[in-house]
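Tutorial handout. Part one gives the primary structure; part two gives the three-dimensional structure as tokens.
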Amino acid sequence: MPRSVNSVASKARKKKIMKETRGQFGRRKNVWTVAKNAYEKGMQYAYRDRRVNKRNFRSLWIQRINAAAREHGMSYSVFMGQLHAKDIEISRKVLADLAMNHPEAFKAIVDAVKK
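Part two.
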């Protein structure tokens, strides 16, 4: 009995991956084996970096809060320690936004913490 090959499905799979690698450099865009490897590696990076992205943003928020707190004579660690001691629960994301876009509101929080 001859071997049954589903060429429609395999062509569709190849077409999907080749579409995803359009715009890449060199053979990554038009040679099947290279394109397949490039696509799979790209998906690995995408999976990993969805988590790394969260770390990067937290780091950015901390830097912004630290810069704003130092303008009011406090370090980041002292400021966050005082926040927790006073039971003021504001996320770092919101604090960073206030520090950047609403400095008067951030100053009000710093004053509330200093008391």
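Part three, for discussion. The chain has one domain: 8-114. Residues 87 and 113 are 10 Å apart (CA to CA).
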